[in-house]
Amino acid sequence: MDWIGIIAIILGLVGLVGCILPVIPGPPISWAGMLLQYLWGKDDPFTTRVLIIWLVVTIVVTVIDYVVPSYFTRVTGGSKAAGRGSLVGLFVGLIFFPPWGMIGGAFLGALLAEILINGKELRTSLKPALGSFAGFLCGTFIKLVASGMMLFYIIKAAF
Length: 159
Known about the structure:
single chain; mainly alpha; 6 helices; 82% helix; 0% strand
């Protein structure tokens, strides 16, 4: 294994960690490891088509990660305001309190939107807020799967 393979594996591992720590963009870093291995790795590790497919997967997974908490909020009975509150809370939390603010922000955004905008009680507002948290967990799982598969391709190409 050459030094390019080692750097690509490190990028893949950092991408995997980034799936759990919201402040690090996991799948894009994993894809950067694939790109590095593709451009400067030994032989032809995988085709251009595979690289492009994983770029599309990376983009889709990254977008889904931001949309899923809001969607789960709506699925669990939250209003449109709760869905928007979840999305706004996610971004506010990410900006001001990374990495944990992203999780708490989505939860609090949905909860506060249900209470303040829709006038619901705390007890009935908790279900959509917990849906937001479940959406965050689902998005994290999707990112882990994608980054794990990219790490597999990187390791396979390095050896």
